[in-house]
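Title: [Solved] Thioredoxin-like fold 3D structure

Original question kept below for reference.
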Amino acid sequence: MAPRLFSCFGRGSKSKDPSLDNATTDQMTEEQRRGGAVVVELFSSQGCATSPEAELFLSRLGRGDFGEDLEVPVILLAFHVDYWDYMGWKDPFGSSQWTVRQKAYIEALKLDTMFTPQVVIQGTTQCVGTDQDAVFSHIRSAARCPAPTFQATFQRPSPDSLQVSLTGALRTKVDSRGADVMVALYENGLVTDCPKGENKGRVLSNDFVVRKFEKLCTVKDISAKKTISGTVNFTLWEGFNSSKCGVAVFVQNSSLQTFGAQNFLLPDNL
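Solution (posted by the thread starter after getting help):
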């Protein structure tokens, strides 16, 4: 479903300048631009007829199918929104929380309309999720910060919970305006028979689906080398399989711009 739907925030359609304007006091160096991974967020829905094409593209990105054309490391996250559930099929991975997150991007990027599939790159630029050339262009031109140096520890305090403890340095200086360290728990290899809605009769495959999303901490006035620590606790879903899941950690300021990210696969036997 191309950009024509859902809500108008009346703030114009101009995309936000991708320059860094709110979280760090250091200028990007060439070393930083060659640094860590670019965070690519897809907002989609199983109730949207064009989202499966974008989901397939995301899966191929994750497999490295475009390695020769896109020599930039990426961290991929798929947020399934819930505003298409009324069309006859309720997305089992959809959440109003992800809809709120997309709304925040619409406002931050000064767009008029919410739509699926939408891709947001580093929190600074966006495009239609099926436009591969545009996605590649935004990824290549995205400002890149060094990856944080977190060490991760995973524990299961109970059968239905996962505890993620992180310790390390952000490798990016944060000023008095501050930034949040966010942690996303995602799942790969999801297959859904879709008997209703715009994708009626299709078998839908989804990877990098965000199942849980929490803030590790908020930081202010810290150096790039300062060690920070924190723990998040996730309530798990029925059928949780650690071998299909990973954790993405990234730093994001109040304007939703991203400054450095790391990715961890969960142990198979967790």
